[in-house]
From TrEMBL:
InterPro entries: ARB_07466-like_C
Source organism per UniProt: Cephalotrichum gorgonifer
Keyword hit for Signal: yes
Keywords: Signal
The organism's taxonomic lineage, starting at the top: Eukaryota, Fungi, Dikarya, Ascomycota, Pezizomycotina
Domain of life: Eukaryota
Domain (ARB-07466-like C-terminal): residue spans on this chain: 125-231
Pfam families named in the record: VldE
Residues in the signal sequence: 1-18
Name the UniProt record assigns to this protein: ARB-07466-like C-terminal domain-containing protein
Amino acid sequence: MKIQNLLTLASLAATTLAATNEPCIGSGGRAGVCVSTSTCSASGGTSISGACPGDAADIKCCTKASCSNGSSGNCRWQSDCAGTSVSNQCPGPAQMKCCSSTATGFGGYAAPKQPTVGTKCLAVSVAGAKKITDQFPGRVREIFCARDCACTSGSDHCCGKAVDLMCSDGGGVPTMSGREIAEWVMKNRSALNLKYVIWGQRIWNPSIDSELAWTSWRGMEDRGDITQNHWDHVHVSFK
């Protein structure tokens, strides 16, 4: 994840763009998807304003509280379903499905392989990743730290000072799981020696920001897909 300077970070808030068909938090705090109001209505969903900032006026956060998959059927991202999922009943892309359970289905993964200390993954990153995964057992599927690139490229990954904590069923698979992890990272910034944290197209930096709920973090530009917009992983950079 590239970062330029504090002025660039501050300017991101003014260019916030939600991405159509990507996650949002909608009516009643439910998992939703940013789609047109007509698409939402056609699917039997409910739209709310303000949860898909930066998009066209008719793109709003759509949720569907009830669908046909047992008595508890509800629309959510498949990666977060604690029961079975049924297609073609919910607004948005194919990964938004009718779940048979109201229970949170975050995680359930085997303990991820921890990175080893080296020039491409410094001790602060290894220690930070372990602290986070210890706090959230079963919630992180895989950890990425090192990248084969020059430290001068501007990416903290290239300097061994960042980790990506994959917290959905696969790369490019959206989840709402990262919010709790990202907010915990924010609250434990001192113990982690945190530089900044990103999840769900929002960024928090202790040098700039006060402690806030993720929904009030500064927004980032639309980078084009689920992974680049950080809907399948939490990015953590360390000092």
